[in-house]
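Hi there, hope your week has been kind to you so far. Thanks so much in advance, here it is:
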Amino acid sequence: MACDSSRFDVILEKKIPLVLSVGALDMVNFGPKTIIPPEFQQRKIHEHNEQVSLMRTTVGENKKFAAFIAEKLNKASSRVCVCLPEKGVSALDAPGKAFYDPEATSCLTHELQMLLENSERCQVKVFPYHINDLEFANALVDSFLEISPKSRHVECQPDESKSVQDIQNDNAALQKYSSSNRENFSRLNDFPNAKPETLQKRIVILQKLKDQISKGKPIIGAGAGTGISAKFEEAGGVDLIVLYNSGRFRMAGRGSLAGLLPFADANAIVLEMANEVLPVVKEVAVLAGVCATDPFRRMDNFLKQLESVGFCGVQNFPTVGLFDGNFRQNLEETGMGFSLEVEMIATAHRMGLLTTPYAFCPDEAVAMAEAGADIIVAHMGLTTSGSIGAKTAVSLEESVACVQAIADATHRINPDAIVLCHGGPVSGPEEAAYVLKRTRGVHGFYGASSMERLPVEQAITATVQQYKSISIE
């Protein structure tokens, strides 16, 4: 935490208006007390914790601080204001605290007043406050407003003031909505990085789904690989639509596992698909499948990009959950494991996005529930039916037990979470009904191949066969 000789240089060189104070100049930071150099062991030491020790600065050291600061600021050509608190420069520099030393603090203040060339360009102000007082914070802001260009803080364009008002109105509406939400699944403190409009969408979506469950109706989610798939999934009454790269491969006649191989940038494909799908879906929530293990994206920035494009939530796909054996173990060992997907869901949750991750076992369900997932999708593996479906999967009976175990694990963490079943032998309405009737706390089905690839295969095949059956005699 050392300060070197270049301190303040860039601000002064760039001629940025600067308000400067003297916070924490009463202390020098060290690591554990045992590593403080011998020549300082007899000084006044405060152990902040086991890893951090603080040493009180002396009158002589404070004189040197003042000289260092004054030398820099006296050379500045931009506007500077130095604000000095008389009653202490840190929480420890106060009456009854470990570093309270009025002589050292007043020396710092007096030296700066003496050494700085007080002028219109460089002002020095002394306030009868402690550095942590609200009054001193207000004085700092007022001082900056005095020296900064007026256009930056006085002139406010009508659209800017309107946007502020809109945000205030959104917050008020959101607070009202949340306080009346009987399920209470949207406490505002849980979403520190959320935009009001994003969080409000999440609240409305979840309330609608909860109401549907209370009426005994299943939640149905669907993957979409094309605009026409999404358009007619909405027409059929689907509750959620998810876009991910496998949809693109699947509807191109390739197996869904192509989405897990290095054929294209999974996250880039989702952004491309947004242009095709989002304009044709009018009401249904559209979520993005996110490759959370992508090492070439800052995930927090990418989630903001998805939010700005128009997605209201996310799912973890491509997912390392579909890998097993030594390869999966190697992914975990080399920092490309499932924990990155959990972390992505947690980040999205804090942003107020709807989160509907896949989980392949109870432990993964627990991790996702603890990360704040709204909907857990119990994944039974690659869908087995159709021309390019997998042949190896658990049986339908085994799926019932697996889905139930994931649902139970989820609800131990969050009793209000929604659980859907997906994949493996659960490849159509009859199989979904079989699982839902034999499980507790499972609220619906999420289909991808079964929702767009299989219907297309069957419909096109049947239609062509009908044409071929026409007689021309």
